[in-house]
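Quick question, first post here. What does this chain look like in 3D?
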Amino acid sequence: MVLTGSTTIGTTTVGDLSVEGSTILGDSTSDTLILNPATLTWAGGNKTIDITGAATRTLSILNSTDGRVANLDLSDGSLFTANTSRLTNTGALENITGYSQSSGDFAILGTGTFSTATGAISLNGDVTIAANKNLTLSSGGGHISYFYKAISGSPIINVSGGSGGSGNAIGGAGGAGTSRGQQSNLVANALN
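> Answer (accepted):
Ran it through. Tokens below.
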């Protein structure tokens, strides 16, 4: 089928429709283009969808059928922004310069490892180490500090079990009424 001149409606049941050069579909922003084929093939080379306008525009993918949704599925390749891969096809985040989670849990399942660079880590809630797991300080000049303003005789670190007993203070000020000598004994008992 060949459309020429001022043709307004054209219908074909067989064969291909070939259009050469620049093509404009519709003459109004409210016009709708309906594509029925299950697969749309763009032959060869990189492609660009250019949404023009004097203001910021948004490209939306939706399913207008009630109760239905539209998913964006990358069968292969990665998800890029600004020419940089952010989410690989295997589900790994990469090249992320910041991460903010407003709610919900952050969980690592299986045998995954959580590691950081040399920046500080702030933990604003309670921290629990599972049974039979260790908190290890590697060799070197590092140390563990506990900043605590003693207002009673409460110990700084409770050590339960072992020959150290329970309620021993390790290092620092052992609270009101605890002498340096007592602190030394507590440290020795806690570490034995």
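The first strand starts at residue 79 and ends at 81.
The beta strands are 79-81, 84-87.
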